[in-house]
Amino acid sequence: MATHRRPRQPSRARVTVLTTAAAAAVALSAQAANAAPSAKPSKDEVKSKVDALYEAAEKATEQYNGAKEKQEKLQRQISTLQDEVARGQGDLNKLRDGIGTMASAQYRSGGIDPSVQLFLSSDPDDYLDKASSLDQLSSKQIQTLEKIQGKQRELAQQRAEATRKLKDLAATRTELGKKKKEVQGKLAAAQKLLNTLTAKEKAALDAEQQSASRSATERVNLGDTPPASGRAAAAFAAAKSKLGTPYVYGASGPSSFDCSGLTSWAYAQAGVSIPRTSEAQATTGTRISSASDLQVGDLVFFFNDLHHVGLYAGNGQILHAPRTGTVVRYESMDTIGGPFMFGVRV
Predict the structure, then answer these.
(1) What per-residue confidence (pLDDT) applies to 302?
(2) What is residue 284's predicted lDDT score, i.e. its pLDDT?
(3) CB atoms closer than 10 angstroms to residue 192
């Protein structure tokens, strides 16, 4: 027969703990329900954050440009080396064919001269060591072998150099991919922030940007500062013809530009080749330390890492491609967002 027992009751202490925990949970839920929602960032706060992201994207863009330029340079060097190796191998084969013809002729006439046997050795260095003991060697034969020996060494060096450059190319391509992803990530983050704005706020920001671009392309007092030189004047005129052209990272014209893409393109129109990146452009000419000494067409560099460059336009203005979302325009040196470092006269 089953035994009926009274269910065990929880202790008073446990009931008290449970009751306290439940009360706390209810209180927290009530606080969460009544709490004010997190404040939405204002249009100006969004703009400030977006501008910072665009600046970071521009810095990454210049690093991307550097990796891209290095990749293209390596590809040209590798192509040249491969062509040289192919030509060198052809020359080597002709030299060997000549020796082979000599050996065949001697064989048909009754035997191969010891000197020719050594010519056919797979080790030209060994041949030269032994050749000194053979009186019948002619100076022409020695000269032929020395050519083979030199050509083999040259080919070995070229092949080794090509191998090294191929490894550099692979590493550069990896770096290029990383920098491209970094730029795209910054731009995507900026766009995500912009998407938090209302349609009215977006329209207001767009209007501000369009107004800034119009005022910077139509109503700018450039003063009467002379050009640095004839080619500087030509470069500035070329850049001026691109006022209103959109900024696109990695672009070097003629329908879109980033900052160093504009300056390198402008000088190319003047018949002057300068490097692709702002950092490299900073080493191309005579440095101008004081802004008061700048002349029209001088390259002007901003930020400690030199990630932004433009062309001096006169009266404290520069002509440049500012950043994503803008166009090629004039702008005061005081509003770039980073300190003026120095100018360069090409």
Answers:
(1) 97
(2) 93
(3) 11
Name the helix (H) or strand (E) containing 24.
Answer: helix 12-34
Give the β-pairing of 340-345 and 286-288: antiparallel
Question: pLDDT tens for residues 114-153?
Answer: 555 555 555 555 555 555 444 444 566 667 777 777 888 8
3-state secondary structure 287-342: EECCHHHCCECCEEEECCCCCEEEEEEECCEEEECCCCCCECEEEEHHHCCCCEEE
- Higher pLDDT: 19 or 340? It is 340
Please confirm, yes or no, whether 4 is among the known catalytic residues.
no
Least confident segment among 13-17, 156-160, 278-282, 321-325: 13-17
- Contact at 8 Å (CB) between 57 and 323? yes
Angle CA 277–279–280, to nearest 5: 70
- The catalytic position among 151, 242, 276, 320 is 320
Single pTM value for the model: 0.65
Question: What are the pLDDT digits (tens) for 48-79?
Answer: 898 888 888 888 999 899 888 889 889 988 88
CA-CA distance, 120 to 127, in Å (whole number)? 9
The residue annotated as part of the active site, out of 194, 259, 274, 318, is 259
pLDDT at 43: 82
Q: What element of type H or E holds 183? A: helix 139-194
Query: Which residue, 121, 107, 51, 91, is CA-closest to 337?
Result: 51
d(CA 302, CA 166): 35
- Assess whether 320 carries a catalytic annotation: yes
* Residue 307 among the catalytic residues: no
186, 242, 308, 345: which one is catalytic?
A: 308
Expressed in angstroms, the distance from the first to the final Cα of the chain is 109
Structural domains of the chain sorted by starting position, each given as residue range(s) with its CATH number in brackets: 43-194 (1.10.287), 222-345 (3.90.1720.10)
